[in-house]
Amino acid sequence: MTNKTGLFLISSFATIIFACKQEPDYKTVRDEVVSIHDSVMVNTEKAYLNKRRLDTLVNQLDSLRETLPSLDTVVEKQNMNKLRTQLEDADSRMSDWMHKFNADVTGKSNDEAVSYFNLEKTKIRSLDSLYVNLLKESNQYLLRFNRK
Q: From CA 134, how far away is CA 85, in angstroms rounded?
């Protein structure tokens, strides 16, 4: 192998390594954030419906006790109110995130924009996880009363 061939191979290898380690374009990360947001929005609608079902159940506790005599309405009202509050808090957190999120990164470098959108991706994933867990919990609770 000649020196020119060796230098070419080393140069090519270095170029490939450098290309692989470059930060992604901020638009790619922004699109990921928006995609996760869209998924969370579907869950916010489901959470809203579960909250409404819980509202209805709270108002029907007396009639539920007639069909379920062993039902401790005080405990169940506390459970329902706790779930309702958690769902409302999640909605408030989502609303707060949406008001603070800014897709416009004019004046920022690609690295700054990527960093910003990665941070926002972490936040929206946390909200996604919160909704998934609350939906699971509220769905299970509502199933106890044949409400889903």
A: 11
Question: Is residue 93 in some structural domain?
Answer: yes
pLDDT of residue 67: 84
Cβ neighbours of residue 135 under 8 Å, at least 6 residues apart?
Answer: 43, 46, 47, 50
Answer whether residue 9 is part of any domain. Answer: no
Rg (CA), the chain: 25
Q: How many domains would you assign to the chain? A: 1
Tens of pLDDT, residues 42-77: 999 999 999 999 999 999 988 888 888 888 999 999
C-alpha–C-alpha distance, residues 46 and 1, integer Å:
66
